[in-house]
Amino acid sequence: MAYFEHEGCTLHYEEYGHGEPLILIHGLGSSCQDWELQIPVLSRYYRLVVMDVRGHGRSDKPRERYSIAGFTADLVALIEHLQLPAAHVVGLSMGGMIAFQLAVDQPQMLKSLCIVNSAPEVKVRSADDYWQWAKRWSLARLLSLNTIGKALGDRLFPKPGQADLRRKMAERWAKNDKRAYLESFDAIVGWGVQERLSRITCPTLVISADHDYTPVAQKEIYVRLLPDARLVVIEDSRHATPLDQPETFNTTLLDFLKTVPTTTQDH
Description:
Elements: E1 2-6, E2 9-16, E3 21-25, H1 39-42, E4 47-51, H2 68-81, E5 87-92, H3 94-105, E6 110-116, H4 127-142, H5 145-156, H6 163-174, H7 178-188, E7 204-209, H8 216-223, E8 229-234, H9 241-244, H10 246-258
Parallel strand pairs: 3-4, 3-5, 5-6, 6-7, 7-8
Antiparallel strand pairs: 1-2, 2-4
Helix pairs in contact: 2-3, 5-6
């Protein structure tokens, strides 16, 4: 367990293993705890770095407006703090947005990119988009984090054998700081870098659960906009793929990382 300071905010991170750097970035309302089924496996082969995004986990939760660009600036500061060479970067959901932002702003910092159940933009365009986000926004404000965590657990881990995952989800979600959670939620809506995807020249893997919130077809559209990307669909999975299909996820990621050239390419 370690901490560093960036712009007056103390941020928590953890390091495991040795080798080429591999950074994992969690999603909204989560923390680096949600990579617990990846850390023991991936750290056998890589220098693994996980961090709690500002407003999450054991990082500070400053009273301010949050943004994906701000979260990304924290990640850049961590990379510089650890003096990491070009890294493999994996982002889940909101973490995928942070990874996308890093890849378009600082392409030289990435050796490869893996996006899990995420998208390069969250734009509210249609009446249905507006209604869906307004509903989520309202519920996030009206309901307790405990209630949200239980509902999310039921939705993400609906099987009888997933009771332990449901319980963990509810417990962890309830520990969030409500104001920081809402600020992070607001940071997502309206964000986007889709028009800049051609800047991402490193090898890219997009992983989608077959039952993710957003359809696989939407991922197929943006994968075509990336210069060197492929899509893998993981079956019998929902939005939290690293938790509900850990073995398949870990194998898929490691197989992809093995194909990335070990010499750093100049972009």
